[in-house]
Amino acid sequence: MQEGSAAILPDQENELKQQPYKRIGSLVSHTFHQQEALELQCEHGFVSVLFYRDDIVRILMNPKETPQKQSTLAVVKERENVELTLTENEHNLTLSSSKLTLNINRAPVTIAIYDQDGRVLVEETEHGMAFNSKQEVISFKKMDANDHFYGFGEKTSFLDKRGEKMTMWNTDVFAPHNPEIDALYQSIPYFMTIRNGQAHGIFLDNPAKTVFDMKSSTEQYSMKAERGQLDYYIFAGPTPKDVLEQYTAITGKMPLPPKWALGYHQSRYSYKNEQEVRALVQTFKEKRIPLDAIYLDIHYMDGYRVFTFDEDRFPNPKQLMQELKDEGIHVVPIVDPGVKEDPEYFVYQEGVKDDHFCKYIDGTIYHGDVWPGNSAFPDFTKAEVRKWWGDNHTFYTDLGIEGVWNDMNEPAVFNETKTMDVKVVHDNDGDPQTHGELHNLYGFLMGKATHEGLKEQINGKRPFLLTRAGFAGVQRYATVWTGDNRSFWEHLQMALPMCMNLGVSGVPFCGPDVGGFAHDTNGQLLARWTQFGTFTPYFRNHSELHSLPQEPWQFGETYEKVIKKYIEQRYVWMPYLYTLFQEASVTGTPVMRPLVLEYPNDKHTFNLSDQFMIGSDVIVAPILTPDTYHRVVYLPEGRWVNYWTNEKLEGGKHHLVEAPLDTLPIFVKEGAVITHGAVKRSTETKEEQLTVHVYPKEGETSTFTYYEDDGRTYGYESGEFYTCKIEAAIDNEQVNITMNVENDGYQPDWKAVKFIVHGVADHVKVTVDGKEQVTEVNAKGCVQTNLQR
Ligand code: MIG
To answer: Domain map of the chain by residue range?
Structure first.
């Protein structure tokens, strides 16, 4: 419903007034045992402090009793034994590990946390931790004039969240996403502060509605939970990448995805029947546009019943899947949580019989209206239900399907609140809690159920799961797409900071619907969006039922050519991207990065929302407005090379660069090594030759450790992978390159390597592993040499 001016009537003011908070007061007593928690009893509340590692501490506050230590399933880390010392005097207690020191003021109790150099990271204001009569709990922290905030999961608006107030409450938002919509599908109550070049982080592990207010004051910020306890972790940093490593130590890392999940994906709400699917694949083939996956949206089902196919539209799914598989294409069907209330439908029957659905306290099943009509919802907080749900996926995996798309899992319900009744009581494995208390976990737990089920069923292959809703830790199970955006240039613009902040929130594998979901796209917007998509970790074109079709060829040849070129580029860059995905799976550092992650001391990067990095050496600066063929690009310190023209540009300043329709501005840092592959039909096509681009820098050895494995199985966990350290140095008109295989547990397909050395004189000599090579100067003025393995 559209709101009119009535929404701002003057007499509504009072209702909006906040309840006053009560502070926990002074310290009454405390207990401390090495390796246990430090427990504080205060006048009006209880506080626990637990160390997980030297550089990670957890703080809990409960106004009524000693805090419960049970974490949500977002947390995977067990506590390590950390050597701690506690000292006391009449004013305060001091608890230290080798990396963090907590200074706890006795009257009133407020906590300040310092790093090993005595620098304050997080410091409570005099309000400290508090609560109110509505059961809300809150913590107030000092805000430094130099604080910049990143993360918070999937949020609209710009990169730096200083000056924003954000609500975490998983919500299905079809209305246009804009800066005032602060609750979308994902809730990741986590952020990173960068202050004077150093970083620390906070994760609030509370799945009820939470609010982060970095807006109402310039001197303090707050984080509040509507229900439950304050339960948060502090990450010591000091670099932004350290914070990500620490946060993902607690909430887990993205497992290495199957390579096909990194290819180009085509979707539509909906490709409605077998003929449409076949015709689609045929067109991609005829036009020689690469394709790795197509999606089946809700029309494939029989009356929107999950785990069924409509027999008229899809009479022989098994055969269809096989045909597509032979073409190197995967199929990803949508699976929603709502199970149609239908006593003749086996999923509903089983769910009722075995007590799998969400219920009210009196035992009646909760029903809500979604696509299939009145529906029941699995209670994913119960391990048994997750197992049942996961097992049901044999319906798909028996057909050869290896990827699933979870939608509507906020859960979305067609009613005023847009979700499940908060009075529903979840089983929560024997510790019942209301939906209001656990709401933000629902999609995450559905993801856990689905991922674990698929993984068990596909014989050692890596499953792919796409999800709309999630919570902290969602990266362990699923790829995140950013829901129902629109075909607006503004939404293309917004997708950059949104995805960068998802990356900073531990979710490296994410992306928006390319071209925009709702509303009609056009050739130029689709072309520019596809250019951006080449470098979003997840790359899927998807559009809505009533919108103009937006497959790559729908807007005429000029656009088709550009779109095709950038889909091809995705495959050209794949060997580089895959290495970055592997890095992310081990370190938590995202593939797509805001510049501030690499240059936290450079003020030009703090709120740089219209360009990003891929790894630490490549800057991508897409065009984000119509009829625009130039743009400003900021290049940080160092020298940078225009990827297309080899022009060298000085860093530490802004440049005006050209960007005709077929050009996505890309800049490579001098000193970088980049690996490329060939244009392919899909990731199933073998790589015949690896291309190594070298951008030598005087006085420095360039290094890149290239990674490869079979792209499908978990063999890499037992050493079946290939890593090769590529080094290059320029010395007196000679470029010396070495390739040292560090792990040969897997043999790559390619039999030849091509080296392309950029930005050097054409008489420069090239040696590879000590041997001088025959070189030629290629069309772009680069020195090039070929090597057979
Ligand atoms: O509200 O399944 O975000 O990607 O195509 C409609 C139909 C439900 C919402 C998803 C969208 C999907 C659509 N779904």
So the answer is: 21-251, 592-620+628-664, 673-788
Q: 55: Cβ below 6 Å to ligand 1? A: no
CATH of 673-788, one of 3.60.15.10, 3.90.550.10, 1.10.10.60, 2.60.40.1180: 2.60.40.1180
- Percent of the chain at pLDDT > 70 equals 98
Q: Are 314 and 320 in contact (CB under 8 A)?
A: yes
298 lines ligand 1 (CB under 6 A): yes
CATH superfamily name and code, 592-620+628-664: Golgi alpha-mannosidase II (2.60.40.1180)
Nearest atom of ligand 1 to the alpha carbon of 174: 1
- 262, pLDDT greater than 60: yes
Q: Which of 375, 484, 487 to mutate to test the pocket of ligand 1 (most atoms within 8 A of CB)?
A: 484
Largest CA distance in the chain: 83
Does the Cβ of 410 fall within 6 Å of ligand 1? no
CA distance 327 to 682: 9
Within this chain, domains 21-251 and 592-620+628-664 share the same CATH topology: yes
The response to whether residue 512 sits with its C-beta less than 6 Å from ligand 1 reads: no
CATH number of 21-251: 2.60.40.1760
Going through 330-472 in order, the beta strands assigned E by DSSP cover 330-335, 339-340, 367-370, 373-376, 403-406, 425-426, 433-434, 464-467, 470-471
Residue 525 in contact with ligand 1 by CB distance below 6 A: no
Pairing mode, strands 425-426 and 734-744: unpaired
Centroid of ligand 1 to alpha carbon of 250 (angstroms): 32
197 pLDDT higher than 60: yes
62-106 confidence digits (pLDDT tens): 999 999 999 999 999 999 999 999 999 999 999 999 999 999 999
Give the Å distance between the CA of 458 and the centre of ligand 1: 26
What is the C-alpha to C-alpha distance for residues 677 and 570, in angstroms, rounded to an integer?
10
pTM, two decimal places: 0.97
Which ligand 1 atom lies nearest to the CA of residue 297?
2
